[in-house]
Task: structure prediction
Amino acid sequence: MFSHNKRLQYTVRVSETNPGLANLMLEQFGGPQGELAAACRYFTQALGEDDPGRKDMLFDISTEELSHLEIIGTIVGMLNKGAKGRLAEGVEEEGELYRSITGAGNDSHLTQVLYGGGPALVNSAGVPWTAAYIDSIGEPTADLRSNIAAEARAKIVYERLINLTDDPGVKEALGFLMTREIAHQKSFEKALYAITPNFPPGKLSGDPRFTSVYFRMSKGEPELRGPWNQGEKWDFIPMTQDSAPVGGGDGLATVELSDEEAPVLQQMAARTQSMRDGDPLTGAELGSGEVPADGAADALLDAAVGPTKPTKAPK
Result:
């Protein structure tokens, strides 16, 4: 059960309208790293969560993300207020009005015309929000890692938005939202490490022959190493074109076919086999003039179906 409090979680004060900045703010409203995506991700995870403590945490954070969506949407609307009125009432010359809402080359005129200056569920490039942004898989140790990364990406976007404005009230509100991303990262990480063991994700431990092997798949200088592929915990194996397949075997794929499948497959392979001798004539050669024009039709027919012999007319 939800109820709405008309007061924002954090007070927003916007000094002046700025439709260009409003358009950029949409990244955190309807974008892949935005607040709606986060709210839906954590809310759906909470519904499927079996641990009571993690369920409460996910519900709490998802609900807070909705309050952040409200803050961002309010900022977008306030930044668009002046342009919204001017566009709706047509109080300026067309060219001047267009310049005032496009600002420094941004696409805010699209959101003004299509959505009347309101916060739309699109990103800053106008791409509609999609549930494909939600990457939950139903395994807590995997989802919590994804949540940590999602909060990190959102924090980076907020940092970039903060650097784009000199409006003190907007900076302050964005700073609050950015800081809450840090708090959520901490909660998710604590929840992750409260699960023992938590790596590798899932139940199966993996094949011990390969869990600590690093395959060097690229060649060339510099050959840089680090803790991700060197030391006692790693078996470093350079791979080349002459390397044998790992795990044994000859590296060739095989399949067992039934007595009914094998002859049908052979029949199809014979029908679609390419010729290995001869030199088929191509349309490119005809178009280049390599074949005399008067013989072009016959040559193309021969290339398609093979040479033909004239037939006698029936008596």
Notes: The chain has a mean pLDDT of 87.
